[in-house]
Amino acid sequence: MSGHSNYPEWIYVAVVIALMAWVGAEAWNAERLVEHIPEGAEVIKVTGQQWFWTFEHEDGTKEIGELHVEVGKAYKFEIMSKDVIHSFNIHDYVVLMDAVPGRVNTVWFAPTDVGEHDIQCREYCGLIHYNMRGTLYVEEAST
Amino acid sequence: MKGMFELLLILAVLVMIPAVDLAFAAGDEPGEYLDRRVIIWNLFFRMMTVAFTVGAVVAGTMIWLVWRFRESHPKAKPTAYEGTDWSN
Fold first, then answer.
1. Would you call B81 an interface residue with chain A, using a CB distance cutoff of 8 Å?
2. Is the confidence metric ipTM above 0.90 for this complex?
3. Would you call A8 helix, strand, or coil by DSSP?
């Protein structure tokens, strides 16, 4: 090292490290919040197979291609696959989780408004992947 | 001796990472109701702000470098080898 001061370089290095630490911390915190399942979340077993979705509620009720939930309640999806890798996606609620054969993946959400939303497969899973869709019906709370 | 210090530092970090992870990880206590759309999109917009700011600073620095250190800049100082007769 000869003849010049290199402190600006160290400032640059420090700024880069600080930015990376901040970005990492923010992302980690968001992930922690989003993955932390609230108490009393109803478990819904989601099974993906070529080329439709099956839902099983805690009380044993089964639905195919459509899912009825209540506004203001938390739901925990336990996502499985019977054949190939699928990906369970409710785009409007930013729910996205792979359905992998031999594995149970979980993701939770709490619908905030009454309405209908698309459910779709987000992992190419064969010929009819494009039509592996469903509908989420968010209804008024029953109690 | 310096190698030893670095080794110990690496070991200390390796021990600390899982400890910090455990301390801050989501425990058994239930999480709160939140709108994941808000959390995720907010994170996205903040990260985009950082990305564009950093991008602007880096691009600006490069533009300034090219402008300032061009040969025709009034304050340009020719480097030692410019105009040197290499046959000597």
1. no
2. no
3. helix
